[in-house]
Write a structure and sequence with these properties.
Layout: E1 3-7, H1 12-22, E2 27-31, H2 48-63, E3 67-76, H3 96-106, E4 116-126, E5 132-143, E6 159-161, E7 164-165, H4 171-177, H5 179-194
Parallel strand pairs: 1-2, 1-3
Antiparallel strand pairs: 3-4, 4-5, 5-6, 6-7
Helix pairs in contact: 1-5, 4-5
């Protein structure tokens, strides 16, 4: 029997990534929208972990069943860790192209060696009984000079791993090394060991 869990998000890209990694383990992942939950809790935490927990608890308090939530974003060293927890609403918008343009503009003139960055994903899992667990994944790379590639979303087109952008990787390649993929594999290991 499949283990049903609600993803505290309606982002179709996130839903796809969660399903690709968790469904082979016998988990059925549905979005909060598919579960009939229409909330958008204020993410006012100062860390990815805090924001992830805020989302998971809000959905769990309504559904009272297994919930997973993640909060993730980009940290650019030369920008003091920006955009960080504001990655999804950087520069006052939710537009991916505007976000990428803003980061590239702020890094004009910054040499390659100082363009280091990472994606961070924090996942909160609340099981049916309300027990909370947290998982972190990081994906190291650097910021390129232009958008490249059509796969992925968010900051993927400017996030370089070696000679390719995250948006030039296949979903399988990305899931094998990405921040969310790493955190999801930790969660997957936890679920298989504890259920």
């Amino acid at each position: 029997m499949k283990r049903k869990m609600i993803l505290a998000s309606s982002n179709p890209n996130k839903l796809r990534e969660f399903r690709e990694i968790l469904e082979p383990l016998g988990c059925e992942v549905i979005s909060q929208k598919e579960a009939g939950i229409d909330i958008d809790p204020e993410e006012n935490g100062s860390t990815f972990e805090e924001n992830s927990a805020i989302k998971a608890r809000a959905v769990y308090n309504i559904a009272k069943c297994a919930v997973i939530a993640d909060d993730s974003g980009l940290e650019v060293d030369a920008l003091g860790g920006e955009p960080g927890v504001y990655s999804a609403r950087y520069c006052g918008t939710r537009d991916d192209k505007a976000h990428n343009d803003a980061v590239l503009k702020k890094l004009e003139g910054v040499p390659d060696s100082e363009r280091t960055a990472r994606f961070v994903a924090a996942i909160t899992y609340i099981d049916d009984s309300g027990r909370e667990s947290h998982f972190i994944g990081k994906f190291e790379g650097r910021i390129g000079y232009e958008e490249r590639g059509k796969n992925g979303f968010g900051y993927d087109p400017i996030f370089m791993v070696g000679d390719v952008s995250s948006a030039e990787m296949s979903p399988e390649e990305k899931n094998a090394v990405s921040h969310r993929g790493k955190a999801l594999r930790e969660l997957a290991r936890f679920i298989s060991e504890n259920h």
